[in-house]
Structure formats: C-alpha cells, structure tokens
Write a structure and sequence with these properties.
The protein has 559 residues and is an alpha/beta fold. The protein is 28% helix and 23% strand. Strands 6, 7, 10, 11, 12, 13 and 24 form a seven-stranded mixed β-sheet that branches. Helix 3 packs across helix 4 and helix 7 packs across helix 14. GO terms for molecular function: FAD binding; hydrolase activity; quinone binding; sulfide:quinone oxidoreductase activity. Its cofactor is FAD. InterPro entries: BLH_phosphatase-like, FAD/NAD-bd_sf, FAD/NAD-binding_dom, Prot-tyrosine_phosphatase-like, Sulphide_quinone_reductase.
Length: 559
C-alpha cells in the first residue's frame, strides 16, 4: 500500500481502488480525499464506489476533483479547508499523487516555510518546482510580473559571496552585480575559536554588512526561497523574482542545532556551549575560567562540517588554560568524535597526538552525540562498534562543547541545484555546476570534497571569478582556472602555538611557507602570530576587497 506521508495529518498516493480501502482503514487512515475526476481513466472506479467502500470501512470520503495541470487558487483553498474539517489522518489521491501533493503544497503556503513544503513533497517523491512561485506567493498565482534583473547574482553575503564579488570587480570594474543576503552583520567566523579561548573579544569578529558589500554592488536584503535554473531565476521570500545571466551560490551551510535532542533548550547555560555561534563563544571562555576540575566533553559530529579542526581547537585551548592554572590534573577531558580519526590529513596527526598525551585527553571515536539534558548535566552518544553494532552510551559532564550536525541550507537542499546529499553539485576543479553551466558555487555549500574553511573560499573566489568572466567572453584567458582543493586549518594546540595544516584534494600537504619559516608539521609560534595577527587583516582588507596575495588561480593546460 504505497501511501506517502507529507505530515502526520495527511498522506498522498496514486489511484485508490475500493478493495484497498479496508487496508487503508487498518493502517489508521480515517478519511479519503479524491482529487481525480470521474471518467479520467478507463479503469478508474467512480467516486460513488469509493465513497461506498469508505463508508463500509468507517471512513469519510470527500470529492474534490481537479483536472491535470489546472489546480486553481480556489481548489487549493478548498483542499486546505477539507483537511481541517475531515477526521485525521487523511489520504488524498489522484492518478499519480501529483495533483494531491500540489493542492497540499499550495494550501500550506504562508503556514509553513517554503523549503519545508518543498522538502516534504520531495521526500514523498513529488517535484513542486512548477508551482514554487505560487507557493512563495502565499499559494496564489502571481500577478506582478515585474522582476529584478542583474548580469551576475550572488546568493550569500558571507566570506565566499563577498570574496567572489570583490574578485570579479578586481578584474573588471564595471560589472552589474547583486548580492542577496538578509543578514545585517558579517562575521569573521574563524575568530570565534579565539573568542572561546579568551584571545579575541566577540566584537573583533563582526562588521556591519553594509560596510563589506563592495562598492557598485547592489545589496538585496532578502532571503532566498527557491531557485528556477531553467528560467535563470532566483525566487525571494514574498515571491519577488531576480533574474540573472550568471549565478554564484554561496550561502554557507546550516548548523542543525535541532539535530541533537534537547540541545536547543540548554545552549548557553548548564555548562553547554559551542564556539560555532557568535553569542556562545564567550560562554565557552566563561566556563573554562570557572572550572577548577570535573569532566569536560568536546564533541564532533559526522562530516562534512565547517572547519573540521575547530572542535579540537576549542579543546586544546581549554586544556592549555587549565594547565596554566594548575587545574588540568583535576579535570577529565574527553574528545568524542563521530568519525574514526583525530584529523583527516594523517601527516598532522602525530603533532596533535603529542598534545593529546600532554593534556591527558581521552579519545573516543565513533561516538555521535544524540541527546543532551543540560540541567542533569548528562549527554547520550550513539557508539558504533567494530562489528557495526550500535549502542547508546551515557556521559556526565560539568562542561560540554558541542558541535552540531551540519547540512546545506534548506532552500538549497531541496532545489534542483543539489546533489543527492543536498550540496550544490559542482565540478570540483572549475566550481561550475555540473548540470547548469551558468551557475557557480563556492564556500561551504558546494559539493567538492575539500575542507569547508574560509581559507578554501579565499582560493575558490578567484577561480570562480576568472571562469565566469571567461564564460561571458569578458577575459581572453585560453584555459580554465582550476581549484586544487586547497584548505587550511590553523590548529591552535596551545595559547601561542599553532600547527598550520595546509592541504589539497586527497589529503596532500601543500605548505605555503618554507620549512625554516613555518614547519607545518610542528607547533609554531610564527604560525600563532599568523593566526592571531595576520589572518584577520588578510580577511577584512584583502580577501573581501579583491586583493589576492598567494591566491592567484592555476590554469588548466592542454595535456
């Protein structure tokens, strides 16, 4: 019985036959909505037959016929009213389930977020791209055809989006560019590790967004609801449409705090903190300073995540402070990692293991945080054993630094741009979309198998800029620019020393500096100075301004 659940109140399916109705009642359904007009198919039972069988089974039936491709605003309103009136749960059907799903989607406009509607329909096997604008318009057919249009549209005003805009303008100053982002503040997120370690103040990591938008670029302060790549259009919340010749998608990723049961209710209190949020990083430092002993847990979720080294950076800096104050000997520190290795680039693991030993850290691999009770100071992890078996492990804590699971933003994940995992599907060398050649992506949201770091976006921006301008015929470069997967993770192993991990696709080490200056395999004071003093100005004054020291792209040459 192929019913596909949209919510706990309603499911959809293809044609229902009278002899299937007792089975639907046994499955718990209490009402049927028939959206297929009588006589549409030669083998189709009439509504009267369906209604009689439903009555015999103790169910209600409602006839709301809609012709294929002709779902009206009134039809959607009637469907929504029927959902309220009929006993639940309900099963609605037409020939394939598509019309019923469309009616549900339009009836939910304005009640549920657009990405949630699209995601639920997609999970049930139905593509709502044909009515996305109507859903965004509150379930009504849009009547205002006025559209915003720009040659280059960038979704996202974070590190990747602004760096891409600046990189484009550095190559050609008279481009017509718009950035879409609803945020008022731009954050230097790599600095939050140092906020949590008592080195930076939170205010040092933020600027007004208006001050960071490059001159000459239009800032559209709105949230994106959906993409229509076939129409070269971006749909904003409220159903405004932005048209483009070229699109760059760089909205970052989604921190799924709700993915851990109980976490949202206790963040920022009860010893529960995270450097992954601007307002929580100061609480990390407050907890570290306030602890004189006890149990400190540090977690890492399944990959991919933003800055894979950040979970252990928080741990090392905390341990360094406890060591300095003489309380580390009274503190049990445990690193609970959903993965199976300390760091993904094996060359850097020996240096990290020296600090694991120095600080007396217990390493627990294949442990994924599932639930947390802040007032009880208890967390539950799912441990995967060597044989693949799984069990729940309970851990008590005085302090816990949590890293949430991470996904692409909802409006990306349910869009035609996404791959099966939800990330924008790009060629990992050119960063051009594999199916839509007028679309590029960079930063955390795209699918290339590189580390999701600001350092990666710094190298990606000029690649996107050159290839996009080359596609438009505005530069004469004969070969495409190539991104080699570069990423960097300055691992703050103690206050004053950093292991400067730099790597490309395949975990290949690509150190930027000679060994006599910074030995990337060893903790370095010089690398700490780079992290604390040099990289923030490089970010604000170079990367976001189109200046690209040590970031010029390589080019593909003929074999």
């Amino acid at each position: 019985m192929d019913t596909r659940q949209l919510t706990d109140r309603i499911s959809v399916r293809d044609q229902v036959f009278p002899d299937e109705i007792p089975g639907l009642r046994a499955a718990g359904f209490r009402a049927i909505i028939v959206n297929r007009p009588d006589g549409e198919g030669a083998d189709q039972p009439t509504f009267a037959e369906i209604e009689r069988a439903a009555k015999d089974a103790g169910m209600e039936a409602r006839y709301l016929p809609v012709e294929t491709g002709k779902v009206s605003d009134a039809d959607a309103a009637t469907f929504g009213a029927a959902m309220e009136e009929l006993p639940k749960p309900i099963v609605a059907f037409c020939r394939s389930g598509m019309r019923s799903t469309t009616l549900w989607a339009l009836s939910q406009a304005g009640q549920r977020p657009l990405p949630d509607i699209l995601a639920r329909a997609k999970a049930a096997g139905y593509d709502m791209s044909g009515v996305t604008r109507r859903i965004a318009n509150g379930g009504q057919v849009p009547t205002d055809e006025a559209e915003i249009s720009h040659d280059i549209v960038i979704v996202g005003g974070g590190a990747g989006g602004i760096a891409a805009a600046a990189s484009l303008l550095a190559r050609m100053g008279n481009l017509d560019i718009a950035i879409i982002d609803p945020a008022d503040i731009h954050y230097y997120q790599p600095g939050w590790t140092l906020v949590g370690g008592g080195v930076f103040t939170p205010e040092e990591t933020r600027r007004d967004m208006a001050s960071q938008i490059p001159g000459g670029v239009r800032w559209i302060r709105a949230a994106v609801a959906a993409f229509e790549p076939e129409a070269k259009a971006v749909i904003l919340e409220g159903c405004r449409v932005v048209k483009y010749k070229k699109l760059i998608v760089a909205p970052g990723l989604k921190l799924n705090w709700a993915g851990i049961e109980g976490l949202e209710a206790t963040l920022g209190r009860n010893g529960v903190t995270s450097n992954y949020r601007y307002d929580l990083a100061p609480y990390t430092w407050e907890l570290v300073r306030g602890m004189s002993g006890g149990t400190a847990l540090f977690t890492q979720p399944p990959m991919p995540i933003k800055c894979a080294g950040a979970p252990q950076k928080a741990m090392y800096l905390s341990c360094c402070e406890w060591e300095r104050r003489g309380t580390l000997k009274n503190t049990r520190v445990e690193f609970l990692n959903a993965g199976g290795v300390l760091f993904g680039v094996k060359d850097y693991v020996p240096a990290l293991m020296e600090y694991v030993g120095r600080y007396g850290i217990d390493l627990s691999f294949h442990h994924e945080l599932k639930r947390i009770d802040g007032p009880a100071r208890t967390a539950w992890f799912e441990r995967t054993n060597a044989d693949g078996g799984r069990e729940i492990v309970e851990k008590s804590f005085d302090m816990i630094h949590v890293v949430p699971p991470q996904t692409a933003p909802d409006f990306v994940r349910v869009s035609p741009l996404a791959n099966a995992a939800g990330w924008v599907e790009v060629d990992q060398a050119t960063l051009r979309h594999v199916r839509y050649p007028d679309i590029y992506s960079l930063g955390d949201v795209m699918s290339a198998p590189n580390a999701k770091t600001a350092a990666a976006a710094r190298k990606q921006a000029p690649v996107v800029a050159e290839n996009l301008l080359r596609d438009l015929g505005l530069i004469a470069e004969p070969h495409e620019a190539i991104y080699d997967g570069y990423g960097s993770c300055p691992l703050t192993v103690e206050r004053g020393k950093v292991v400067l991990a730099e790597f490309a696709y395949g975990g290949r080490r690509v150190p930027s500096f000679p060994k006599w200056f910074i030995d990337d395999l060893k903790p370095s004071k010089t690398a700490w100075l780079l992290k604390e003093k040099i990289l923030p100005p490089v970010y604000w004054q170079a990367m976001l301004k189109g200046r690209e020291p040590m970031a010029k792209p390589h080019h593909q040459t003929a074999a």
